Amino acid sequence: MEFDVGARLKEIRLAAGLSQRDLAIRAGVTHGLISMIEQNRNSPSVASLRKILGGVSMTMADFFQETTREKHKVFYAPDELIDLTSKLGSINGKTNKRMTLRQVGNAREHGLQILHERYEPGADTGPTMLEHASHEGGIVISGELEVTVGGQVQVLRAGDAYLFDSRIPHRFRNIGTEICEVVSACTPPYL
């Protein structure tokens, strides 16, 4: 069963007692964007969804987490990672270039977010640069990834790594022709 991003956003908005306009004002986005997402007529970028969820003080992990995870769990099988974004990839049956972010365990409980990231060719975190009060780093496992941090742009390949202050505007794009995989960490957790 596919995750319904629009229905989940509407459920959260209504639980917070907000109209679409109220949430749009709080999040600093247009009312039309909230409406389009709730109707599943727009697939939000990671940056857009994060901005909207900031209007209700919710993380992306909480947004996508459908079940309560066991407390103090130490080991995780691949199917136990929390899928944060792959559900953003299709609207009205049309598949978009997408990325997948899968989180290891309860990031908030540990103050550390560890992600297995997968970028299909053409995938992009979005034209709006990401900014958050954290530090993050990662290692490219396969493929290539264009990473922009402030005015610096670098194409990273397998074995290359990055580490920076996440308050500096940044963006990730797979400009290659193959899938890119990255293992990253962020503290404090951002998504």
From TrEMBL:
Keyword DNA-binding: yes
HTH cro/C1-type domain segment(s): 9-63
CDD domains: cupin_XRE_C, HTH_XRE
Domain of life of the organism encoding this protein: Bacteria
SMART domains per the UniProt record, alphabetical: HTH_XRE (SM00530)
GO cellular component terms attached to this protein's record: cytosol
One annotated GO molecular function: DNA binding
Pfam families: Cupin_2, HTH_3
Record flagged with keyword DNA-binding: yes
UniProtKB keywords: DNA-binding
PANTHER family per record: HTH-TYPE TRANSCRIPTIONAL REGULATOR, HTH-TYPE TRANSCRIPTIONAL REGULATOR PUUR
Annotated protein name in UniProt: XRE family transcriptional regulator
Species of the source: Microvirga subterranea
